[in-house]
Write a structure and sequence with these properties.
The protein is an alpha+beta fold and 125 residues long. It has one domain (11-124): Roll (Nuclear Transport Factor 2, Chain: A), CATH 3.10.450.50. The protein is 22% helix and 47% strand. The chain contains two helices and six strands, in the order αββαββββ. It has a six-stranded mixed beta sheet with strand order 2-1-6-5-4-3. The longest helix is centred in the middle third of the chain and has 15 residues, at 49-63. The protein starts with 10 loop residues before the first helix and ends in a 6-residue tail after the last strand. The model has no long low-confidence stretch (mean pLDDT 90).
Length: 125
């Protein structure tokens, strides 16, 4: 994954950067709250770390044979971190596409507590 040169300012930003580099499940609070807008998944709200990892990501794995995240910019707002970038995806038995995204993360004391993730699947249709 591409990571932009970003000056580290807050623990929230540090956690988000580690998430994009490792996808470490332990970074997500057990009660993690995910709002996924524009992903074409069965639900737009996933409550709990396991619901996000198994439900949301599970649905994406069923639909796409490739899913890469490229971060273009991170904006440090202390406990809230906004990330802008693009996905490089390949639909199973279908075309490849580039999809823009915006993620707004909230960090607690020891873990990421929520994300609102927005994308536009129309380029992959």
């Amino acid at each position: 994954m591409e990571m932009p040169a970003t000056h580290t300012k807050s623990p929230g930003l540090n956690m988000v950067k580690v998430w994009y580099n490792t996808g470490g499940e332990a970074l997500l609070d057990p009660e993690f709250d995910c709002h996924a807008i524009g992903y074409g998944t069965q639900k737009t709200h996933y409550k709990g770390r396991n619901a996000m990892l198994g439900g949301f990501f599970g649905e994406l794995e069923e639909r796409y044979s490739e899913w890469q995240v490229h971060v273009d910019r991170m904006i440090d707002g202390g406990n809230d971190v906004t990330v802008m970038g693009r996905y490089q995806v390949k639909i199973k038995n279908g075309p490849a596409a580039t999809l823009p995204f915006v993620h707004v993360w909230t960090a607690g004391k020891d873990a990421l507590t929520s994300v609102t993730a927005c994308t536009d699947l129309r380029p992959a249709a």
